[in-house]
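> call design_seq(struct)
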């Protein structure tokens, strides 16, 4: 039930939320402006007031917003679960459950948009690059805080993000959580062994 004391989101926030949802489910080109405005409950013409660059600028704002929320969620987990590997396991399990519970429709917006972007989308690609970099940096920092040397923490973070994004894509097309569960379980189990001193 919505909190009656919570402030009502403004038009800009509703547009960003609608675009973020569209990116997760259908990609950038899967929704038209008319449908997007209807979903946001925004009148025609208001888009360019908040986002002079149009649909692309709105998509960039949505990508940044989704990444902000993901990092807040990860930070919250790391506060509650000090072991970074176990926190990451919980984080990936939650993403997997969300994908399954939405009928394999609601995946990660970054990979979806990255696959449909072209060299003619420099702003979009820059936003995606920034989002992936922020994800890798935060994961690497958590691994460093858990005792992993900086260089290997960065490499492991890149591997974790690759497994996370690739696993979600495979699960979505397979309509099964097995691909991401198999990849993340194996990878995180190896990281657990590393943290226990059984390093190759």
């Amino acid at each position: 039930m919505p909190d009656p004391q919570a402030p009502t989101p403004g038009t800009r926030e509703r547009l960003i939320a609608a675009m973020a949802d569209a990116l997760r489910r259908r990609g950038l080109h899967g929704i038209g402006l008319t449908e997007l405005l209807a979903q946001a409950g925004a009148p025609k013409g208001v888009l360019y007031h908040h986002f002079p660059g149009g649909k692309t600028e709105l998509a960039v704002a949505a990508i940044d917003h989704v990444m902000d929320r993901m990092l807040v969620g990860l930070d919250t987990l790391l506060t509650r679960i000090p072991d970074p590997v176990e926190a990451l396991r919980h984080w990936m399990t939650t993403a997997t459950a969300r994908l399954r519970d939405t009928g394999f429709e609601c995946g990660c917006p970054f990979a979806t948009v990255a696959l449909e972007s072209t060299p003619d989308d420099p702003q979009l690609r820059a936003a995606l690059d920034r989002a992936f970099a922020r994800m890798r940096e935060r994961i690497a920092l958590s691994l460093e805080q858990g005792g992993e040397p900086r260089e290997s923490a960065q490499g492991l973070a890149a591997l974790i993000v690759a497994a996370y994004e690739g696993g979600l894509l495979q699960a979505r097309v397979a309509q099964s959580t097995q691909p991401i569960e198999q990849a993340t379980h194996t990878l995180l189990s190896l990281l657990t062994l590393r943290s226990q001193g059984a390093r190759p």
